[in-house]
Amino acid sequence: MPWSRALPAAALAAAAALVAVPAPGAAADSPGPAGSRLVLTLHSGENAAGRVLGSVSLECAPDGGSHPRPGDACAALRAAHGDPAAVRAQRGVMCPMLYAPVTGRVVGSWDGHPVEFIRTYANRCVAGGESGGVFQF
Length: 137
Description:
The chain has 137 residues and is an alpha+beta fold. Helices cover 29% and strands 26% of the residues.
């Protein structure tokens, strides 16, 4: 008789598992932000192989992380739909005309989509201004 009792219990457990698993594509329709988490790094020189000058984390929605001005950096990235290459330069930033190249690198995710970006700037000041403050640390 244990067989007859085990069968209904197993069937009930299987049915519960089917109810708890969302249908394919349902996750894409579910509301709620996926969040955005990025690691921003500045390297000395004309590529990302140079010495690390600084590295910070940036989280958007809600804004935070170790970036000194996460609200400004997240606002710049939001305006560019999370694409660091499309961020608009800050207005009124005056930088010295000194060539001391730095390379900025962004790795992480924006609204659940992978982000990887590398760009070389003339110097650290230019990196901060041209990146809309993203690399201003």
